[in-house]
Amino acid sequence: MTASTTEDEKIVFFFDIDNCLYPRSYKIHDIMAKLIDDYFMEKLDLDFEEARMLHQQYYKDYGLAIEGLVRHHEIDPIEYNSKVDDALPIADILKPDPELHKFLRSIDRSKVKLWLFTNAYKTHASRVIKALDVEDQFAGVTFCDYSEPILICKPKPEMFERAMRDAGVVSKDKCYFVDDSFVNVKGAKDFGWKTTIQYLDPLDATPPNLAGHYEIRKFDEIKKIVPDIFLS
């Protein structure tokens, strides 16, 4: 009989949350973008077009609009979170997804630890996985900690280092990752993670270049990429 894999030897499969565990067609991102624009208008006394442009500029420069607000306007990120992420009507939009649940349960937990990895704050992550009813499928979550004076988020190398510490994995060869963001997947590949996968929405155009090692449009396609981590 083959000895079971210890926790230290397990692969850690990191899953992004937004527009990854649920489809972009739910338009949660669109609702969030409006809430962010409204926040910029209220806090910075901008008109809509000014707010929209600054929001997009900060997202381009830092990967998160909130990082630009903290750096340049001394905005409290926890207060921002309450007005943006935590104001999203998650429970009204997201419902349990049997196909997602079936896919996650098909992964062999004697070989693999599942871990959430998001640029959102922990409260948003908790609300989403609760609405999708997959709380019991993940061993933990690495999130952008809005309580810290300097925000660290994907695709910064420090964020991938944090995720590995949180999940208790030492070797980059044990790190698998799926995310809808091109820059995040590219960041993970550049950081040296073994298997990096960009999740494309069915309506997304195919990027001219691969962000990571693979592209998928359905989670079941991962079974062809790494078949050995699934139950037979």
From TrEMBL:
Protein name: Haloacid dehalogenase-like hydrolase-domain-containing protein
Entry annotated with the keyword Transcription: no
Cross-referenced NCBIfam families: HAD-SF-IA-v3, Pyr-5-nucltdase
Keywords of this entry: Hydrolase
Molecular functions per Gene Ontology: nucleotidase activity
Source species of the chain: Lipomyces tetrasporus
Any single GO BP term: pyrimidine nucleobase metabolic process
Pfam families in alphabetical order: Hydrolase (PF00702)
Transmembrane region(s): none
Record-linked PANTHER family: PHOSPHATE METABOLISM PROTEIN 8-RELATED (PTHR47438)
InterPro entries: HAD-like_sf, HAD-SF_hydro_IA, HAD_sf, Pyr-5-nucltdase, SSM1_domain
Entry keyword Hydrolase: yes
Coiled coil segments of this chain: none
SUPFAM superfamilies: HAD-like (SSF56784)
